[in-house]
Design goal:
It is a single chain. This protein is mostly helical and 298 residues long. Helix content is 73%, strand content 4%. The protein has a two-stranded antiparallel sheet.
Length: 298
């Protein structure tokens, strides 16, 4: 009975819908640059950061997927204000990135710790994760325009009136949305890209009068990405054009949607319980890699 509740909804359709939603104009414009900029900053905790990012998005999209239509409508009605806030947030994070700082939500004692050769401040790791979680929250809110795709995936579960089906399909959808990022994080770790010259970067010492300032190349790159993203969000919001997307991006979205529908039609002969086990297997595998990474770092 329990297995029937979990896997009777169309998990494959929800998973692929999530992957397609990632490339929707309103999603990829916000979510992908925020993630990539965070990668350049975090360097050695990319998989852990991806989970934090995933949790931030889940906090927003899970209630919407479970029927909190009012929440989706709230974000939609204040989409312009949300993008103004997001633009200012990105510019603020750009400044913090260049300075090698993280976002602290509570007052912290000021302790001067020199940057490492990789541009990391050991005391800033916790605040960096707070920044990433906040980025996840904002990304979830900004991508709530993808809620119609989510609603379509969850409809199969809602019709049955079973809460656990709706919960499972929604989580699978969100995991599908972040799945390409989990894959990227896995290969980043697998091929030890953190040891590459690009990611290690270079630490510059800049003298301003009698003071010495340290600037790391990867922090600068992250700051540039955040700054460009902030300027784009503000310009679109102030021009009342927050739902704008280039025609080629719309065509890509339509093509991906057609491909995913074709894949679902071909693979629906496989029982959905099998797809549920496969998807759960991927999630457990990434969790295993996370704990293994945590254990090896001790």
């Amino acid at each position: 009975f329990f297995m029937e509740i979990i896997f009777s909804a169309s998990l494959l359709a929800a998973f692929l819908a999530g992957m397609v939603a990632l490339f929707a104009p309103c999603c990829i414009t916000v979510l992908l640059p925020a993630y990539l900029a965070s990668v350049f900053r975090q360097k050695k905790n990319v998989l852990k950061m991806t989970f934090v990012f995933f949790l931030g998005i889940t906090v927003i999209l899970l209630p919407i997927g479970l029927g909190a239509a009012g929440l989706a409508k709230l974000f939609q009605n204040f989409h312009r204000e949300l993008w103004i806030f997001g633009g200012l947030l990105m510019i603020f994070l750009a400044i913090l990135a260049v300075l090698g700082k993280g976002l602290s939500l509570v007052p912290m004692p000021k302790i001067k710790i020199p940057l490492s050769r990789e541009g990391e401040d050991p005391a800033a790791n916790l605040s960096n994760f707070k920044s990433i979680f906040l980025l996840g929250l904002f990304s979830g809110a900004a991508t709530s325009c993808c809620a119609p795709v989510l609603a379509g995936a969850v409809t199969l579960a809602v019709i049955s009136g079973t809460f656990w089906k709706a919960l499972t399909v929604t989580l699978v959808y969100i995991f599908g949305m972040i799945f390409p990022l989990f894959l990227a994080a896995y290969f980043y770790d697998r091929f030890r890209l953190s040891e590459s010259r690009l990611i290690k970067g270079k630490l510059w010492e800049i003298k301003v009068g009698s003071k010495k300032l340290f600037l790391h190349s990867t922090n600068l790159l992250a700051g540039i990405v955040f700054l460009i993203m902030g300027v784009i969000l503000l310009s679109l919001a102030l021009s009342h054009n927050v739902f704008w997307a280039p025609s080629f991006q719309e065509e890509i979205g339509k093509t991906l949607n057609q491909w995913s529908q074709t894949i679902v039609d071909i693979l629906k002969v496989v029982p959905d319980i099998i797809w549920g086990i496969i998807i759960l297997g991927f999630f457990v595998f990434f969790l295993y890699r996370l704990f293994r990474e945590k254990k090896s770092s001790k």
